[in-house]
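Task: encode each sequence below as structure tokens.

Item 1
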Amino acid sequence: MNSLMILVAGPYRSGTNDDPVLMQKNLAYLESVTLDLFRAGHLPVIGEWIALPLLQLAGSKVPGDAPYEEILYPVAARLLQKCDAVLRLEGESKGADEDVRIGRERGLQIFYKLSDVPGCG
């Protein structure tokens, strides 16, 4: 089995009304599959792991402000240039749907269940 770099995509801001507690809960949901992916020999990545520190450095104050728009989605797009696959978790998310669209465009493997990822079944 080849090790894959897998972007975990799903809701982060969606459905939260920008409530930081709910956004953190969504991030924990995304993170919930990463240890399984790692133990299966893959490298899981989540765009927010990279974007959130950059947002802080850029002075972002609220979701949707100029630094947020400059950084959050472009981070995922740049990550997808390096990834081998996308794991799209359940939940409404325009950003995650865009990740899948870009992934398909690039010919990446798209998984919708952790059990479909090699080594995770």
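Item 2
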Amino acid sequence: MTAERGGDRSMKAPGAGPVPAERPRGVAVLRLRGHDVADYVWEPDLPPSTSPRPYLHPVRTPAGTTVTDAAPDSHPHQLGIGVAFPDVGDRNFWGGRTFVAGHGPAWLDNHGTQRHQRWLRRTSTELTHTLRWVGPHETPLLAERRTIGCRWISETAWSLAVQTRLTNATGEPLPIRSPAALGRAGAGYGGIFWRGPAVTGGARVLSPSGAGVGHVHGETTPWVAVTGTDAGTGVGAGSWTVVFTPGDKATAQDRWFVRARDYLGVGSSPAWDEPLVLAPGETIARHVVLVIADGVLTSGTAAELADIARPAP
């Protein structure tokens, strides 16, 4: 297997649909049952202010409805599904403005970049590669191994697993912080994050505790679901649901960041309101599984799909 950016673009997993021979440079495509279900932009061309990083977009339901957004006008640094933190050792790996304690959001010249290193596995249903998180002066801060996998669940749903292992690549303790840890109440974001698309008539947030953001934002819960209808379609068409569930015990202890006003966003947050400090060489691992489904699902169906998609303990 060729490890670097050329790779073998014809590789496929058993049972997966055929992979076209040519792909756009820097994009890998996940494919199930003959359908392109997600593009992984592993070598993006983005301005430094966005904290350039690999991301998944578009991600599509089995019927082809897109359930992600990337670089919208209001938040050009929010990119589909990816891994991002607003503060890693005082460097911004989220993009946009940096929250400064006692001051508020400010534009700083502190944006980092996640750089692809090499492929470890690249098929139509699984992608594994190594990355280096570097600061604005190319100072290495984190070494990452990331795995993205997909599998078919039914004619109307499939699952997307995102796993990350982050290792402190410095010789010093390395703090990872959210704005909440610096005094911005409720802003505990940072980690594996999904930016949702524009919807018609608003979206609905579901969880085991009830419907609405207030039941799940800042809480731990076995699953979260967001349902909506594509803003570019008529009422009743292009409806979708995305279900989020922790893929391991460590991630299950993290709180959820959930936003449904102004934009749709869901993330699992390892450093909600206290810094997560990695010792030199220390590694943390996180794993979130998403179910991408057609239609507006009930809480009961969302819970069933979360159970199906969640890895066995």
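Check on item 2: The chain has one domain: 27-309. Residues 27-309 form a domain with the Beta-galactosidase; Chain A, domain 5 fold (CATH 2.70.98).
End of task.
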